[in-house]
UniProtKB/TrEMBL annotation:
One of its GO terms (molecular function) is phosphorelay response regulator activity. One of its GO terms (biological process) is regulation of DNA-templated transcription. It comes from the Bacteria. It comes from Salinimicrobium sediminis. CDD domains: trans_reg_C (cd00383). This is DNA-binding response regulator, OmpR family, contains REC and winged-helix (WHTH) domain. Pfam families: Response_reg, Trans_reg_C. The modification 4-aspartylphosphate is found at residue 51. The keyword Phosphoprotein applies. Keywords: DNA-binding, Phosphoprotein, Transcription, Transcription regulation, Two-component regulatory system. Residues 2-116 form the Response regulatory domain.
Length: 225
């Protein structure tokens, strides 16, 4: 899961990032309206944590841009502005939740999980596809009830393909979602090929019915045999 934190308070930003990374989310952080506008114009995120009081602009304008473009990124507003008008405006503009500062990081974590469950997994903690079962909260994969050992990136690749099962996922989209904007520094997609190769081998050995199909030159699709 890929999270964008838009927050100009350094200590708050660090605490939020640490909390999200402990849950094994891929986290990117920006501290200004300009940086945030650049990010949401290029990349997709599963959840955006948005402070509406930024030094160079209003976060609600970013929310409006997201929704006007029809982007599906979930948004939780995290703000010291706790007026009823701000809450109503943010929710009317399309925010999924509004968390006033100060808040406990445990509550932030719970709200992120709740939104991801609702948006990505039909309200469940578990995603199932044929004899494959993925427990999102515990980062656990089982085939026919037997646990499959995966490293973090293999898990992230499988989860993203499972969320998009039976749909073609481009190499670029997969790379951005699992590795973040650091892929801009990569010369090739060799690192993706390596993870896919290892993941396929483990799925085959475990007799998984879902398989990763390569569409030459484009990307990958998780289908069931």
């Amino acid at each position: 899961m890929k999270i964008l934190i838009i927050e100009d308070e350094a200590e708050m930003s660090r605490n939020m990032q640490t909390t999200m990374e402990k849950e094994n989310y891929l986290v990117e952080v920006v501290s200004s309206y300009k940086e945030a506008l650049s990010k949401i114009g290029i990349y997709d995120y599963d959840c955006i944590l948005l402070d509406i009081s930024l030094p160079d602009g209003n976060g609600l304008e970013l929310l409006k841009i997201l929704k006007d473009k029809g982007l599906s990124d979930a948004v939780i507003i995290v703000s010291a502005k706790d007026s009823l008008d701000d809450r109503i405006l943010g929710l009317n503009l399309g925010a999924d939740d509004y968390l006033p500062k100060p808040f406990h990081m445990a509550e932030l974590n719970a709200r992120v999980k709740a939104i991801l469950r609702r948006r990505k997994f039909d309200g469940s903690n578990v995603l199932e596809f044929s004899n494959l079962k993925i427990d999102i909260d515990h980062h656990q994969v089982k085939i026919d009830g037997k646990e499959l050992e995966l490293n973090r990136k293999e898990f992230d690749v499988l989860l993203y393909l499972s969320i998009n099962k039976n749909r073609l996922v481009s190499k670029t989209a997969l790379a951005e979602h699992v590795w973040g904007d650091n892929i801009d520094q990569a010369d090739s997609f060799e690192f993706i090929y390596s993870q896919i190769k290892n993941l396929r081998k483990k799925l085959t050995t475990a007799k998984a019915l879902p398989e990763i199909k390569a569409v030459y030159g484009i990307g990958y699709k998780l289908i069931s045999q």
